[in-house]
Amino acid sequence: MKIGKKARVGAAAALAAAGVSAAVLSTISPAAATFSSRGLYLDIKVGSTAALVANGVAATVPVTITCRANYGGSVWIQLSQVTGKKLATGSANVSATCDGTTTTLPVTVNANGPYAFAKGDAYVTASLSGCGYAVCASDNTSATVKVTAK
Q1: CA 52, CA 119: separation in Å to the nearest integer?
Q2: Model confidence pLDDT, tens digit, residues 90-146
Q3: Among 8, 35, 102, 131, which residue's beta carbon has the most beta carbons within 10 A?
Q4: Distances in Å between the alpha carbon of 34 and those of 105, 136, 137?
């Protein structure tokens, strides 16, 4: 079967577009913790340590954000920790000022369920959400933190 010139040009254009898309997508790393679009800028980082509160009833996790949004911002984090064969978890949501400055927020997470947090390693998932003109988004990150006595 003979392929005409228009078909070859169309196929080449499609492959070129796919190659460009693949090149653009390959530069976006899932570990990157920044979102920027149409004036909205969101960046979140989790500190390396968390402090126990009230013998493990809660833990305070420092979260550093840079947020520029027209309609406020919100930080949500979840803390999970295995001690022995027990899983302690909790989550917290706090409002964030989105004026473009970098701010560190101490976010206190209450342990949900029957198990308390303890000294040792824990896993944190964090999200910063905000809205700009015609766009809402969130920036997400996760890290292992060392939970220490206050």
Answers
A1: 7
A2: 999 999 988 999 999 999 999 998 999 999 999 999 999 998 888 889 999 999 999
A3: 35
A4: 17, 14, 11
Residue 18 tokens read as 């796919």
34-148 is classed CATH 2.60.40 = yes
Extract the runs of DSSP E, i.e. beta strands, from 1-150: 34-37, 40-46, 49-53, 58-68, 73-83, 86-96, 99-110, 120-132, 135-148
Domain ranges of the chain: 1-30, 34-148
Gap between the Cα atoms of 86 and 144, Å rounded: 18
Q: What is the pLDDT of residue 83?
A: 87
pTM to 2 decimal places: 0.74
| Cα–Cα distance measured from residue 16 to residue 78, given in angstroms and rounded to the nearest whole number | 42
Determine how many CB atoms are found less than 10 A away from the CB of residue 20.
Answer: 10
The number of residues in the chain equals 150
